[in-house]
Design brief:
Layout lengths: L9 H18 L2 H10 L29 H15 L3
């Protein structure tokens, strides 16, 4: 009997979990899905919510597909100015 486990890459482990939940997710009502998203802190009313990544469209391949780069850059600059006011 083998004593050591072979570690799985995180993506493969997640894929297996999602496959295990697939039938349960398909059978879930909209209300159950909204409640689960709320428990995870996801705002389904927000355009571009992470709750919909890979659900409505294929997974985005670039950060620009999810976030507005200009607003990210502005927010980063603001945080740096607040941290180092000199």
């Amino acid at each position: 009997m083998r004593k050591e486990l072979i570690p799985l890459p995180a993506e493969l482990a997640l894929e297996r979990v999602l496959q295990g939940l697939e039938l349960e997710l398909v059978a879930a009502t909209d209300e159950e899905i909204v409640a689960a998203a709320a428990d995870l802190g996801m705002d389904l009313a927000m355009k571009g919510s992470a709750a919909f990544l890979g659900v409505l469209h294929s997974r985005p391949r670039r950060v620009e597909d999810i976030f507005d780069p200009d607003s990210l850059r502005d927010e980063h600059a603001r945080l740096i100015r607040e941290r180092d006011p000199d």
